[in-house]
Design brief:
CATH architecture of the largest domain: 3-Layer(aba) Sandwich
Shape: globular
Number of helices: 14
Radius of gyration: 21 Å
Number of strands: 14
CATH topology of the largest domain: Rossmann fold
Helix content: 25-40%
Distance between the termini: 20 Å
Strand order of the largest sheet: 3-2-6-1-7-8-9-10
Oligomer: single chain
Length: 335
């Protein structure tokens, strides 16, 4: 399949193509990688993996080309139009009709990249109408969450099928490079966004003190969230048996949990979509219930092994390159 992911505006990411599983800058044909899109040149993150699923895969930052997109024979386009929606006077080239003219025989699938923008549009009739009109011009819609839930209101206004296509992860790379013997320790996941940390750090400290388990986490202060290189970061948390992440926001995918499961560490807590898929018994922010489930895992090695094995099987069933490629092949369209 000849596939392209086209995003209306994606700075600082340059357009690229895939040749023999290697990514090259589209304009200068040099091997391409920047930290925004992956761990390293051998392992890209989430949406940036879609072009790697196919022998002829491309990512186009539409802003780089404007009206002069490349001449290609494409079978399928995933189209993201979010940053420029409603700003046509500044970006007039971002028009699905321009794609129809350029690629007349290509399926164009509207891709919802930022879930928060969907939720916010419900309080802004103009933004909601713009999203609905854009998606109605596509041949189908793809979301990266398994159930519509908060997206149902958007789907109700669109006359095209909504399809679940997971964010792809290089599961084998994580396993080969970060799967290791685990220390009996807790890693408290503290993302940059404070509302997504919720009570993760406080609850982790409580469990650590009560059950005498070492606690590890990134150092924070009130002014700055200290970043460390992503490979070093993964190496740190994947050394721990438990990874606490009590993200309370249900409409985010939860990609961190996919990485965690790929390394054999156990994610505890949180209600993101992928938490429920990979760790259904401990995907909660109910602290009393979470402590009870944690103690069961702490005291029963067989139970821990069952949780790790189930998560691994779900990874390969839903998030591996092979699985996501199949999901794309099975997208439903209006006949």
């Amino acid at each position: 399949m000849n596939f392209a992911l086209i995003v209306d505006a994606l700075d600082p990411v340059s357009s690229y193509y895939v040749d023999n599983n290697t990514v090259y800058d589209f304009k200068n044909n040099k091997e391409y990688f920047i930290p925004t899109i992956g761990i390293n040149k051998d392992c890209f993150l989430t949406i940036y993996n879609y072009p790697l699923l196919f022998e002829n895969g491309y990512l186009f930052n539409w802003h780089e080309f404007e009206y002069d997109l490349p001449d290609l024979d494409l079978d399928l386009i995933f189209l993201v139009v979010e940053r420029t929606l409603g700003r046509e006077e500044f970006t007039p080239w971002v028009d699905i009709q321009n794609l129809r003219k350029k690629y007349p025989n290509t399926r164009i699938v509207g891709y919802i990249k930022e879930p928060e923008a969907v939720i916010n549009s419900y309080n802004d009739h103009n933004q909601y109408s713009l999203k609905v009109n854009f998606l109605n011009k596509c041949d189908a819609v793809v979301v990266n969450r398994p159930e519509l839930k908060e997206f149902q209101k958007l789907a109700d206004g669109v006359d095209k099928p909504f399809n679940f296509v997971a964010l792809p992860h290089n599961v084998n790379y994580y396993y080969d490079n970060f799967f290791k013997d685990k220390d009996l320790a807790i890693w408290a996941y503290t993302p940059h966004s404070g509302n997504r940390r919720y009570s993760t750090l406080d609850f982790s400290k409580y469990i650590s003190d009560k059950y005498d388990i070492p606690l590890r986490h990134k150092q924070l202060n009130l002014m700055r969230n200290f970043h460390i290189p992503i490979e070093e970061f993964i190496d740190k948390w994947s050394s721990c048996l438990f990874h606490f992440n009590l993200d309370p926001i249900p409409y985010f995918p939860g990609n961190q949990a996919v990485q965690v499961a790929s390394t054999g560490t156990i994610n505890v807590g949180g209600v993101n979509d992928y938490h429920h898929i990979l760790y259904p018994e401990i995907a909660t922010c109910d602290l009393k219930k979470l402590e009870e489930k944690f103690v069961q895992l702490l005291e029963d090695e067989n139970k821990r092994n069952e949780v790790v094995e189930r998560a691994w099987n779900k990874l390969n069933e839903i998030f591996s390159f092979k699985a996501v490629r199949k999901q794309i092949e099975n997208i439903r369209y209006i006949s």
